[in-house]
Amino acid sequence: MPTLKKYLFTPGPAPVPPEVLLEMARPVIHHRTPEFSKTLDEARARLKPLFGTAQEVLLLASSGTGAMEAAVVNLLAPDEHAVFVNGGKFGERWGKLLTTYGMVPHEVKVEWGRAVRPEQVEDALKQHPEARTMLVQASETSTCAVHPIPAIGEIAKRRGVMLIVDGITSVGVFEQKMDAWGIDALVTGSQKALMLPPGLGMIALSPRAWDKAKSVKTPRFYFDLNRELKAQRDEHTTAWTAAVSLIFGLNKSLELIHAEGLDRVYARHALMAQATREAGLALGLGLIAPETPAPSVTGLLAPNGIDTGKVVKHMRDQLGVSVQGGQDQMKGKLVRIGHMGDVSPFDMLIAVSALEMALKFSGMELRMGAGVAAVQARIGAGV
Amino acid sequence: MPTLKKYLFTPGPAPVPPEVLLEMARPVIHHRTPEFSKTLDEARARLKPLFGTAQEVLLLASSGTGAMEAAVVNLLAPDEHAVFVNGGKFGERWGKLLTTYGMVPHEVKVEWGRAVRPEQVEDALKQHPEARTMLVQASETSTCAVHPIPAIGEIAKRRGVMLIVDGITSVGVFEQKMDAWGIDALVTGSQKALMLPPGLGMIALSPRAWDKAKSVKTPRFYFDLNRELKAQRDEHTTAWTAAVSLIFGLNKSLELIHAEGLDRVYARHALMAQATREAGLALGLGLIAPETPAPSVTGLLAPNGIDTGKVVKHMRDQLGVSVQGGQDQMKGKLVRIGHMGDVSPFDMLIAVSALEMALKFSGMELRMGAGVAAVQARIGAGV
User: Fold this and answer.
1) Considering only CB atoms, which chain B residues are within 8 Å of A101?
2) Would you say residue B80 has pLDDT above 80?
3) Is A156 within 8 Å of chain B by CB?
4) 3-state SS of chain A?
5) Closest to B47 (Cα-Cα) out of B245, B189, B144
């Protein structure tokens, strides 16, 4: 086998366009200068349409988990009750964060690959009326499923409950209407649809979340959003030293995203996801999230006897194509193919082709080329 | 005036070498792969000599302040007493962190520009025997002074007190002997002598600090060092998504640093600092830290009537040379010239030349060229 170029189709980090990589290679500047302020302001403004908000979007020098922590420690007090949806690893993370900081979490457990049903949320809030906050993923990366945020937002609005949403694999992938859906905190990270390396977290709060953040006494310093709001909105810099190069890159990637047009960006993600699902079905694989599949990452289930750990390793080490397996209960059973950011529908030909080869190598009987043909057909037909 | 190239002589961020910028522009890879593990392990091993430790150095996706927070929340419990040295903005930050997380801080106040005297530390520890931890800066960036860490380490050892040191502008600038000096936690950040953009924090703990971190109950999640130790030492990855590109860059910058040789790196910083101080004196400026000046950043005091805010602005906006003014009580009085990382003694000719021009523009009477001549003489003479 000749040397093969490497391809990144993991559920994050996602590929970074060369324009963005080179923008980040610009000489570093100081973070308390008019030049930096201009870039920071521009990037923050360009994020608003992706969040679907008129509110301030703040940048944090952290991974997405840091932004999740910021939401919890700024919006919930110790001993406060909260309902959270646990439909996978990242839902579970909300629970761990709440427990760590002394809140009282009430879990809505959802089978992996399923979306939470709005009635489940409503029931949990009825059962725990002392919970005035709920936390959920817009897209649960570990199970490749989306949760129905608009419906949950309706319930939260009706019951006057604060809604915190992890948008790490939804912002920039499909439309988010933070303000219209009644989301009180929406967080994301840089290394997914925003086409950047990891290292930047982002968060926006609703006016009532800002009110609450003023009174909540949970200790926080690095992730103190009141301090960041003052710094970023009023002083046009960050409270702590800004991740200058990543912010250069963010501004460039947002320029590219808006040049493509948000509608087209979202349509592209939808097409890639649909093509990948259809390829999986054509190969005789199952879908982990057949009813509510995420446009960010597609989860394909291998038949019994095929270890997807080996499939993923073969794809990466022998074919140069990085995807990911399943976590926890899905270890060895699931292949997750990320299609976020700087990825094009034609790239799915590569991902699916390598998948076919690795499945065959792992002993699965399949019709080689069936997945690739499905991708091609879907690209031809459109969404 | 023709267009002028821009120069960065701030006390951080410091300039990043093109080799490092380009290394960070490599395509992103996933952070749970053998390829990433190799880079992470290598970078962490290459950091040890800069810390002067045989212990694990952990990387965090945060600014240096995040690493300071990690030290506090992992090593101190709420209601625990601690002595901290406040000799400037960053000493003050230790106090704010302790207060935020419910500890009982006892301040050793030091005049700006002075080093804490070991007796002051000893007295404070005698006066507050309930304090079993003390926190200090190795180099206080806001006042351009260094504190006597070896002597403080002796006292801490003798009294069995845990010693936490902010090495943000000392690691990579001058020799740090974490293990030999009895430092229990040493933190730093990426954007100073490590020649990287901001966005990576680093921390190493002594064996007894690790013991304490196991029992301390202060809530922490994103900055949970036990979790990071397990991930980085045992699993060769990070607990949360790694700042992959910055870690690529770190490994490259450490390669450059070790190729130059640590002794030569430290001698270069010492020479730049001495040249800059002598230039200031030749121009009739004062030194804010005459007795214990930092090798990382030099603080020069302007005569009465000269507003250094204007000097700094003129240097940046008219001459393309970025330095910084003073903070708080030193606002308008101080010029801080950073000389960390990818800076050479000859570059000080530029910094000092621009300073002379801006001082003259601001109305100071001075002999133009006297500072530049002092830099040249010092380079000729060596340290």
Assistant:
1) 219, 221
2) yes
3) no
4) CCCCCCEECCCCCCCCCHHHHHHHCCCCCCCCCHHHHHHHHHHHHHHHHHHCCCCCEEEECCCHHHHHHHHHHHHCCCCCEEEEEECCHHHHHHHHHHHHCCCEEEEEECCCCCCCCHHHHHHHHHHCCCCCEEEEECEECCCCEECCHHHHHHHHHHHCCEEEEECCCCCCCCCCCHHHHCCCEEEEECCCCCCCCCCCEEEEECHHHHHHHHHCCCCCCCCCHHHHHHHHHHCCCCCCCCCHHHHHHHHHHHHHHHHHCHHHHHHHHHHHHHHHHHHHHHCCCEECCCCCECCCEEEEECCCCCCHHHHHHHHHHHHCEECEECCHHHCCCEEEEECCCCCCCCHHHHHHHHHHHHHHHCCCCCCCCHHHHHHHHHHHHCC
5) B189
Q: What is the pLDDT confidence band of residue A4, given thresholds at 50, 70 and 90? A: confident
- Backbone conformation region of residue B36, classed left if phi is above 0, alpha if psi is from -120 to 50, else beta: alpha
Q: What percent of chain A has pLDDT over 70?
A: 100
| pLDDT tens-digit series, residues B239-294 | 999 999 999 999 999 999 999 999 999 999 999 999 999 999 999 999 999 999 99
Q: What gap in Å lies between CA A14 and CA B158, rounded to an integer?
A: 51
Domains B7-14+261-381 and B31-258 share a fold: no
> Which residues are within 8 A (CB) of B158 and not within 5 positions of it... i.e. 6 or more apart?
none
A 307-336 near B (Cβ less than 8 A): 316, 322, 324
Query: In the beta sheet, which residues pair with residue A139?
Result: A146
Q: Give the integer Cα–Cα distance in Å for A267 and A226.
A: 36
Q: Which is the CATH superfamily of the domain at B7-14+261-381?
A: Aspartate Aminotransferase, domain 1 (3.90.1150.10)
Predicted local distance difference test score (pLDDT) of residue A219: 98
The residue-averaged pLDDT of B24-28 equals 95
Residues of B in contact with A66 (CB under 8 A): 61-62, 222, 240
Cβ atoms of B66 and A61 closer than 8 Å: yes
Interface of A with B in 17-76 (CB under 8 A): 18, 21-22, 24-33, 61-66, 69
CATH code of domain B31-258? 3.40.640.10
Going from N- to C-terminal start, the domains of chain B cover 7-14+261-381, 31-258
| Tokens found for residue A25 | 């290679």
Whether A340 has its CB under 8 Å from any CB of chain B: the answer is no
**ipTM for this prediction:** 0.95
Distance, CA of B245 to CA of A24 (rounded, Å): 10
Contact criterion met (CB < 8 Å) for B199 and A245: yes
pLDDT tens by residue, B130-179:
999 999 999 999 999 999 999 999 999 999 999 999 999 999 999 999 99
